[in-house]
Amino acid sequence: MLEKEKIDKIAHLAKLEIKEEEMDEVRENLSEILEYVEKIKEVDTKDVDFKLFSPVRNRARKDKVEDTDEKTKEKMRAMGKNKDDYFQVESI
After folding, report:
1. How far is CA 42 from CA 20, 45, 46, 47, 83, in A?
2. In the chain, how many domains are there?
3. 6, 23 in Cβ contact below 8 A?
């Protein structure tokens, strides 16, 4: 079972307030969840194609170059931080 200190740390990181009278129940529940996760880790999934289970597909679009209209250029100039009709941004 999880120690109280670990639960306090998890609660702090998750910005949760756990009252002292709830601590035993929370310890029990979290311990059960972690035990279940350990059981799931034992399942061999190396031959499973997980793409079959997800309907989400990457829908990338082609990049295309378009001329900037004069109205947009005026807005960019008004905002400052532009150079040669491009937005100038801080480097990361």
Report:
1. 34, 9, 11, 14, 56
2. 1
3. no
Q: Tell me the HSE value of 83 on the side-chain side, using a 13 A CA sphere.
A: 3
Query: What is the reported pTM?
Result: 0.48
In sign, the C-alpha dihedral spanning 84, 87, 90, 92 is negative
Q: In this structure, is residue 52 part of a structural domain?
A: no
State how far the Cα of 1 lies from the Cα of 85, in Å rounded to an integer: 61
Does the residue 26 lie in any domain? Answer: yes
Tell me the C-alpha distance between 71 and 48, whole Å. Answer: 53
Place of tokens 């996760």: 37
In a domain, 24, yes or no: yes
Predicted confidence (pLDDT) per residue in 59-91, tens digit: 788 888 888 888 888 887 787 777 776 777 777
